[in-house]
Amino acid sequence: MKKIFGLVMIGILLPTALVLAEGQQEVAEQVTIKLGSGANEKNIQYEATKYFADLVRERTNGQIDIQLFFSGQLGTAADMIDSLQVGGIQMMQSFPPNWTSYVPEIGVLNLPFQFSDFDHVRRATDGKVGEELATLVREQTGVVVLQWWPHGFRNMYTKRLIENAADMKGLKIRVPPADVFVRTFKLLEASPVSIPWSEVYTGLQTGMVEAAEADLSGALASGFHEVTDYVIKTGHIYTASFLVIKEDFLQQSHRRSEEGPSRSSRRGRGVAVQECS
Predict the structure, then answer these.
(1) The domain spanning residue 193 has which CATH number?
(2) How many C-beta neighbours within 10 Å does residue 127 have?
(3) CATH at 56
(4) Looking at the structure, do residues 7 and 97 belong to the same domain, yes or no?
(5) Are 218 and 146 found together in one domain?
């Protein structure tokens, strides 16, 4: 599975790196890009983003240097989104739940139990839904979605066994600060709590919360298995990932059509998936 994911990510990242490289062929001085993320360095999104940064550096002969700031080094997701909009940073690897305060429509991706598998997700994010959401992100924030990336379905990680819906009553569970997550768990009569991702491990450890929900990659990277006893495989919500860049910076960087990176990335993904089959 990890090998397949890696091949898919190469197909996604290489064309985008080449597009950025083409725009810098005539630039003599080095361009430094700050890229922030709340994910930690054990998360597969870090591996993918680091590979992307290395590709850009290689293909531009060092003219573009993407500096990675993961594990919330630049603040919360909201801090980084605000910084991205004003030019404090130029790129971000992020997740839709963090953007619902800025682009409410993006919350449609977080509706529970709407995707059956990864192919279903891909048809949505690589199709009209993904295109329209990317347009809304650009229009409402001035940020361009370079590519929707695969990530994972969310499960629950708990300190006590959950066998049915009745067991959810009163469960103090950490959820992202997005309305659809809060409402979903309130309907199950749980007690959802929104705390920053970087504090979830400590919250579980100290009893501030008794459960959390996340995709498998994020849960393993954050060590949830060390402070919880059960994995409840619900797959209740799918979380996408995306790579974004400030629009005016992108235009200055490659002097190409703003839709170029998206088209190139989708073609690269198609080739990679074909190789995996």
Answers:
(1) 3.40.190.10
(2) 11
(3) 3.40.190.170
(4) yes
(5) no
3-state secondary structure of 30: coil
Structure tokens at 202: 């400590």
- Does 18 lie in the same domain as 112? yes
| Structural domain containing residue 175 | 154-232
Strand partners, 92: 36, 244
Decide which of 210 and 251 is more confident: 210
Q: Are residues 69 and 8 in the same domain?
A: yes
Q: What is the pLDDT of residues 159-206, one digit of tens each?
A: 999 999 999 999 999 999 889 999 999 999 999 999 988 899 999 999
Q: pLDDT higher for 52 or 215?
A: 215
Residues 68 and 91 in one domain: yes
- The answer to whether 60 touches 24, Cβ cutoff 8 Å, is yes
On the CB side of 189, how many CA atoms lie within 13 Å of its CA? Answer: 7
What's 42's DSSP letter?
A: T
DSSP string, 165-218: GGGGTT-EEE--S-HHHHHHHHHTT-EEE---GGGHHHHHHHTS-SEEEEEHHH
| pLDDT tens for each residue of 57-101 | 888 788 888 899 999 899 999 999 999 999 999 999 999 989 999
Question: Is 45 found in the same domain as 24?
Answer: yes
Q: Residue 264 pLDDT > 80, yes or no?
A: no
Specify which residues 215 forms β-bridges with. 154
Indicate if the pLDDT at residue 6 is higher than 90: no
- Count of domains forming the chain: 2
